[in-house]
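Anyone able to model this chain together with 4'-deoxy-4'-aminopyridoxal-5'-phosphate?
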Amino acid sequence: MSRFLHPSLRSLTPYVPGEQPKAAGLIKLNTNEAPFSPPPAVREAVTSAAGRLRLYPDPESTALREALGEKLGVPRESLLMTNGSDELLYYAFLAYARNGVAFPDVTYGFYQVLADLLDCPTRILPLRQDLTVDADAFCAAPEMAVITNPNAPTGLSLPLRQIERIVRSAPDRLVLIDEAYVDFGGESAVGLTQSCDNLIVARTFSKSRALAGGRLGFGVANEAVIRELTAIKNAINPYNVNALTQAAGLACLAEDAYFTEACAALAALRDKTADTLRAMGCAVTESKANFLFVEAPGVPGETLFRRLREQNILTRYFNQPRTKDRIRVTVGTPEQMDLFIKEVGRIMEVAK
Ligand code: PMP
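re: yes, here you go
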């Protein structure tokens, strides 16, 4: 450590992203990327935008917000585009979480990292025994609430009426719903943002729009909140969404039917894979996301993760008391899922 670092950052524990391997031949089921590519029109839009790289991008992502607002049924003043939804989460924590923030014990690890970075007091509200979010506990918590829905890594989804109950239970307390995985079968709370001014919804193009490499996310909220978050964005990174990504995002929005179909096919493969694994004796949560949370009987999560890695199949293992028996596996192509199932079966056989 250098002697220049500010004392508040000396014990910083950064988020550890899933491995991004350089080696060829690995089956990458560890970071919930889409197994399908964006359609050709998206590549064409990026190529065309590359001709204007000399210029700064539109700092307000105006065309993108206009098109997205139309799609979601909200005014563009209710939208802030960001460099992945992680950037939106950072701004929201910076603006609203420093008096306190509540989130589940098993959820997206970035929340704790942000809370530590920004010195936010945290209240951890454990998931219930069945790994569902404890809506009553969130209704009672006075701090800003942060809920991933569907949750990660469980994949379990909280019904919209429960989200609405939490939001309306305390109108002076902000609720942030992270809908990174909502397009694979969850219920979106975006519609509520127009009647509830204490709600922020975070979304991303990284998963269901196959644009993880482009880094495009956004926040939906009432206009006052978006104005505040936009001011913060303009104080930190005014040109936060680059020109190529704005073009890619706009092209994605014009290809909605393609993505809706791709997400539906993925959800069907997810459910089929879950059924097969259950028939083999595995415990698999009822995922509404693009991943499964899997426990193989007699095989600790870390062992399963390592044995799969030896077979070039990358998954994710979270070494915490409530997650250590399981791995999270991204739903890939049908061929990748067949291979995954076969290897899990083999590993279970050896462990007998
Ligand atoms: N929220 C959740 C729950 C996630 O799993 C992720 C992906 N790591 C993100 C937000 C951030 O995604 P991105 O920054 O790519 O939009």
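The longest strand covers residues 199-204.
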